[in-house]
Amino acid sequence: MMHVKVKAKDVRFTIPIPYAILNIVISILSSKFIQQNVNKWTKVHFERKKLDFTFPLIDKETLKPIVKELKNYKGIVLVDVKAKDGTEVKVKL
């Protein structure tokens, strides 16, 4: 299970994310429908800012073995960020 901890000035919460939910999110984000619409929704903004960027395709078959391998490294901290305003975010397996 992945744990996301967020600490802000007035708020402090932890979000546990089971690997099953993570696999579902990967399946949704890697669907052709979502990927095509993300590029379509952001196209106007990128044209206005004069940026030439398209979101790369996310391959479900590549990401699922990575998630499976992460299960072997319980307790490792993936992200530990502290902002100047005191906000902290930590992602831990």
What would you say this structure looks like, in words?
- The protein has 93 residues and is α+β, with helices and mostly antiparallel strands.
- It has one domain.
- Helices cover 42% and strands 25% of the residues.
- The protein has three helices and four strands; from the N terminus they run E-E-H-H-H-E-E.
- Strands 2-1-4-3 form a four-stranded antiparallel sheet.
- Strand 1 and strand 2 form a beta hairpin.
- Helix 1 (19-29) runs antiparallel to helix 3.
- It is flat, with a radius of gyration of 17 Å.
- It starts with a strand and ends with a strand.
- The model has no long low-confidence stretch (mean pLDDT 88).
The gist of it:
The protein is an alpha+beta fold and 93 residues long. It is built from 3 helices and 4 strands.
List the helices and strands and how they pair.
Blueprint: E1 2-7, E2 12-17, H1 19-29, H2 32-48, H3 60-70, E3 77-82, E4 88-92
Antiparallel strand pairs: 1-2, 1-4, 3-4
